[in-house]
Amino acid sequence: MKVFFRCVLLALVLLLSPSPVLSAPGPALIEKSLSFEEIAQLARETLPQEGVLIRKSDGYVYVKVDDRYIHDLFPLLGVEGSGFVKAPYFRSRQAPGAHISVFYKDEHVDPDEIGKVFHFTVKNVAIVENRQARYIVLQVESKELENLRIRYGLRPLLHGHAYHITIAKQNIR
Predict the structure, then answer these.
(1) 14, 69, 103, 149: which one has the fewest Cβ atoms less than 10 Å from its Cβ?
(2) DSSP for 61-99?
């Protein structure tokens, strides 16, 4: 009789507790975090390495990329509970979602290439920081974007930094 009750109790615990086996398919099935190199490799193999050039009304220009760069990769970082949160680019309908910055509004560039597709290559995942926050970013390379900036009389890289897709943010102040 004890064995029967133990089996029933175990079955109830398994049924009522969250289980990756019972979850939706996708990255949530991975129970442990991946290394930065594994995340970059996964992005290279499963996500499109292209996006469309967009200009906001304030003059900010970016390449809109698949939002899965944030939604799928963030859980794989294993940083939940450490102060990092998913990149905050989904707060409103006007928010860019996953993107690569190309021109800041103070550069006053209105490119003719708006709406065109630009390609990039996923390089690696890195942690970068400024005085206010740390970011986990997926660094990408794009000769097309470098040439676009040069065409408009600017340096190939935005503020001298690698092009990137921000995945996570941690405030440090």
Answers:
(1) 14
(2) EEEE--THHHHTTHHHH--TTTT-EE-S--SSTTS--SE
Q: Domain extents for the chain? A: 30-171
pLDDT tens-digit series, residues 103-126: 999 999 999 999 999 999 999 999
Q: How far apart are CA 128 and CA 106, in angstroms?
A: 22
Handedness of CA 39, 41, 47, 51 (dihedral sign): positive
Q: How many CA atoms lie within 13 A of 127 on its CB side?
A: 10
User: In what helix (H) or strand (E) does residue 138 lie, and over which residues does it extend?
Assistant: strand 133-141
pLDDT digits (tens, 9 = 90+) for 3-49: 333 333 333 333 333 333 222 333 443 446 899 999 999 999 999 99
Which residue has 């099935």 as its token pair?
29
pTM score, whole prediction? 0.80
Q: Show Cβ contacts of residue 133 under 8 Å, excluding neighbours closer than 6 positions.
A: 169, 170, 171, 172, 173
Residues 2 and 92: beta-carbon distance below 8 Å: no
What SS3 state is found at 158? helix
